[in-house]
């Protein structure tokens, strides 16, 4: 009998050896690990760096979906791109406005990458790294321009690029120059804070580099600790085609159906089960990995407790699947 | 890449079974068991009472498993029910219609639907006026049978989501209902009819638009969208209604990049749609659902009052709203559309504009390509200049109504980074010029 909370707690433990959490927390970076196979696609691990950056405690974050860190000013199209990347099981790197616990917004570079099971190629986790993008100051006063122009060689070009924060033309060196100049004449008015947040923020190469490095470290930790547990993972999908699996985002949708059911794929040899609902697992007592990939007939094996009577319905399910998979039949 | 819709039977809940038995009871009246005074008194229909939440609550609700699950999963059970199919209420079987995603950058969706054209109710009013009074003699939704109504959709009294399988219909409360669309383009294609008994004509007002947003938010699913067609933009019935359905792929219009024009003082961001055959606006943000809703509905009201036909797409569970003014009907009337396009007989309403092309001829379906879709939709779009004029009207209307809301007179529009010249925005309303 696995409650939702139990599933979340076990998500890492089932795949990786028990020391993985400690190893992950040795990294200074902010990142989360989510499990797309659990309904709601919840966070199953949040690094200390993450908790510090967002101002949450571990309890407040584990089990929640990433969207709680979004807010009214978060660009919806960016959220949509992340959603599609999850659906298509691929990596994405995108600037996003997030909100801390105290609801203050900040820009960060979000780098997300799937983790695949080496055995059957399905996505078992997503890793999300958050690298804050420092605010490039926006200045409207002439005084600062003059100072900055004096202190910068490339005067004319610089002046054009100065207005509007986070513009690519403003190179990081000149930003520091502005910083120094601004400490002399502070011209930014209280309104500026508001406007800065509204400007979309581009990440520089620095942030991208940090994100890539962090992700790489996390993946190697996960790979290493999965070797120890015997259930190998890898950062790239390396499954043989033909092994049945469902797109992880379909898992999220199916997870909302509170019934006992399985889906099997008639287009694969021996029509294996490609999805089993939580209630099915509760009812039958099997763990998910014991069910996936097997034909339904195993349910009526010698192991079945003769005293327990199961009534197996061809259970009607109130939805349809429109997908680019071969037709899936519903049991 | 061929997509196939696999139809599966649904749970016929106990609620619905009971209702079927009671249906026969109300066979009096005009004999049609409709929604008018002849048949409605004493009728009972299911009722879904939604909770009016602000945005922060929505986020927290969908995040945690610690929150109570709603009594009936809105989308899955209520909206995608199939028993009405079995009762022969649909004009054709939409699941028998081939659908495919066209190869290309945007992934336009093509559906071959020969039946919809022949069996859909024909348009019964003039197409050159966006605002037309309600006409009792023409078809309206009170004339449909009660069996076409899925449920009443009302805000909850006690701030909790509730479902009543057999709620009496209180005429005085002016209920809003969700009904099946007997000419569906997709499985689960439904209609939201705000305050059905008031017989409102097809025109947006603040309350009904907010109701539509609540429905999108309630479904909590970015693939469940609502759409609206004004008169003159291929609405076929002059009785206020929104359409809705579920399609588990991104719409091409949702993929189009956008460029921010401005943010209102309430935090509603307004953007241009870029790199897409049809020009229009996207609204998102706002500190509450109401604030977003009001900015959009005020924009629509402005378009209506200036006789500009338009379509609306509510996407991303109500967080992103596309407003597209269009001019295809006028071009058709003036004979400015090529015969090639006219022959396809595609009427570009909101779903077509979003990228879900419902095609009536097999050859169009076979030859469907991104270029063809693009070419058709480009005819629908307002020109850059015309859209610019429309935007001026809109921004003036929005800021005026924002002033009314706030009781302030300060400059409402904070930050206009590209394109619009501030001084130009405050010129008095010009009469709209012909395209």
UniProtKB/TrEMBL annotation, chain A:
Flavoprotein listed as a keyword: yes
Gene Ontology MF, one: photoreceptor activity
Keyword annotations of the record: Chromophore, Flavoprotein, FMN, Photoreceptor protein, Receptor, Sensory transduction
GO biological process entries: response to blue light
Compositionally biased spans, kind Acidic residues: 191-203
InterPro entries recorded: PAC, PAS, PAS-like_dom_sf
GO CC annotations on file: nucleus
Domain of life where this protein originates: Eukaryota
Coiled-coil ranges from the UniProt annotation: none
UniProt domain PAS: residue ranges: 39-89, 273-295
SMART domains the record matches: PAC
Region named Disordered: 183-203
PANTHER family noted in UniProt: PROTEIN TWIN LOV 1 (PTHR47429:SF2)
NCBIfam families to which the protein is assigned, alphabetical: sensory_box
The name this protein goes by in its record: LOV domain-containing
From TrEMBL, chain B:
Domain GDPGP1-like N-terminal: 75-245
UniProt source species: Olea europaea subsp. europaea
Primary residence: cytoplasm
Subcellular location: Cytoplasm
Keywords assigned: Cytoplasm, Guanine-nucleotide releasing factor, Hydrolase, Nucleotide-binding, Nucleotidyltransferase, Transferase
Domain of life: Eukaryota
GDPGP1-like C-terminal domain: residues covered: 252-399
Single GO biological process annotation from the record: glucose metabolic process
Family according to the record: Belongs to the GDPGP1 family.
GO cellular component terms, A-Z: cytoplasm
Gene Ontology MF term list: GDP-D-glucose phosphorylase activity; guanyl-nucleotide exchange factor activity; hydrolase activity; nucleotide binding
Pfam families the UniProt entry points to: GDPGP1_C (PF26216), GDPGP1_N (PF26217)
Record has Transferase as a keyword: yes
Annotated protein name in UniProt: GDP-L-galactose phosphorylase 2-like
């Amino acid at each position: 009998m696995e409650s939702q909370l139990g599933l979340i707690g076990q998500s890492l433990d089932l795949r990786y050896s028990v020391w993985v959490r400690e190893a992950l927390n040795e990294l200074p970076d902010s990142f989360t690990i989510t499990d797309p196979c659990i309904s709601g696609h919840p966070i199953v691990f949040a690094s200390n760096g993450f908790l510090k950056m967002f101002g949450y405690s571990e309890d407040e974050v584990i089990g929640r979906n990433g969207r709680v860190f979004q807010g009214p000013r978060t660009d919806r199209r960016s959220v949509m791109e992340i959603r599609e990347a999850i659906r298509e099981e691929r990596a994405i790197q995108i600037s996003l406005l997030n909100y801390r616990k105290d609801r203050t917004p900040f820009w960060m570079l979000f780098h997300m990458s799937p983790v695949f099971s080496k055995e059957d190629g399905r996505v078992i986790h997503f890793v999300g790294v958050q690298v804050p993008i420092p605010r490039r100051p926006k200045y409207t006063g002439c005084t600062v321009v003059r100072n900055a122009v004096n202190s910068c060689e490339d005067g004319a070009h610089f002046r054009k690029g100065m207005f509007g924060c986070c513009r690519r033309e403003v190179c990081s060196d000149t930003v520091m120059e502005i910083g120094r100049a601004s400490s002399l004449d502070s011209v930014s008015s209280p309104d500026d804070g508001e406007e800065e947040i509204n400007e979309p923020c581009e990440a520089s190469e620095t942030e991208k580099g940090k994100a890539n490095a962090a992700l790489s470290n996390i993946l190697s930790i996960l790979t290493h600790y999965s070797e120890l547990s015997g259930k190998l993972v890898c950062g790239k999908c390396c499954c043989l085609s033909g092994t049945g699996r469902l797109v992880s985002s379909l898992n999220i949708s199916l997870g909302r159906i509170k019934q006992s059911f399985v889906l099997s794929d008639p287009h694969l040899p021996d029509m294996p089960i490609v999805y089993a609902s939580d209630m099915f697992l509760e009812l039958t007592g099997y763990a998910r990995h014991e069910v996936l990939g097997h034909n339904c007939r195993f349910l009526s094996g010698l192991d079945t407790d003769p005293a327990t009577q199961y009534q197996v319905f061809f259970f009607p399910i109130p939805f349809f699947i429109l997908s680019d998979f071969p037709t899936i039949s519903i049991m | 890449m061929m997509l196939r819709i696999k139809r599966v039977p649904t749970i016929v809940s106990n609620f619905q079974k009971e209702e079927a038995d009671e249906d026969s009871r109300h066979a009096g009246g005009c004999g049609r068991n409709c929604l008018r005074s002849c048949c409605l008194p004493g009728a009972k229909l299911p009722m879904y009472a939604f909770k009016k939440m602000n945005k922060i609550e929505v986020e927290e609700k969908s995040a945690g498993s610690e929150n109570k699950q709603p009594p009936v999963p809105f989308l899955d059970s209520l909206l995608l029910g199939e028993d009405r199919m079995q009762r022969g209420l649909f004009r054709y079987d939409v699941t028998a219609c081939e659908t495919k995603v066209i190869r290309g950058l945007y992934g336009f969706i093509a559906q071959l639907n020969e039946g919809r054209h022949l069996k859909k109710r024909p348009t019964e009013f003039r197409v050159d006026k966006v605002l037309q009074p309600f006409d009792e003699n023409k078809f309206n939704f009170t004339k449909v049978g009660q069996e076409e109504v899925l449920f009443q959709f009302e805000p909850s009294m006690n701030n909790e989501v509730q479902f009543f399988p057999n709620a009496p219909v209180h005429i005085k409360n002016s209920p809003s209902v969700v009904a099946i669309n007997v000419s569906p383009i997709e499985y689960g294609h439904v209609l939201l009819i705000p305050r059905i008994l008031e017989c409102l004509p097809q025109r947006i007002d603040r309350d009904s638009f907010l109701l539509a947003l609540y429905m999108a938010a309630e479904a909590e699913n970015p693939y469940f969208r609502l759409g609206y067609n004004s008169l003159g933009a291929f609405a076929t019935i002059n009785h206020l209604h929104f359409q809705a359905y579920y399609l588990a792929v991104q719409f091409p219009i949702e993929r189009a990049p956008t460029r921010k024009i401005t943010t209102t003082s309430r935090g509603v961001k307004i953007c241009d749609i870029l790199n897409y055959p049809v020009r229009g606006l996207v609204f998102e943000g706002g500190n509450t659902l109401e604030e977003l809703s009001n900015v959009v509905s005020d924009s629509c009201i402005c378009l209506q009052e200036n006789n500009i036909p338009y379509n609306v797409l509510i996407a991303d569970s109500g967080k992103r709203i596309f407003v597209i003014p269009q001019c295809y009907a006028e071009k058709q009337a003036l004979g400015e559309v090529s015969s090639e396009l006219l022959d396809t007989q595609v009427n570009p309403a909101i779903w077509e504009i979003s990228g879900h092309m419902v095609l009536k001829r097999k050859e169009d379906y076979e030859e469907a390509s991104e270029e063809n879709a693009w070419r058709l939709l480009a005819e629908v779009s307002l020109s850059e200049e015309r859209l610019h004029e429309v935007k001026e009207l809109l921004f003036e209307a929005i800021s005026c109504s924002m002033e009314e809301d706030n009781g302030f007179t300060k400059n409402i529009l904070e930050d206009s980074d590209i394109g619009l010249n501030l001084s130009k925005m405050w010129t008095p309303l010009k009469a709209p010029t012909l395209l």
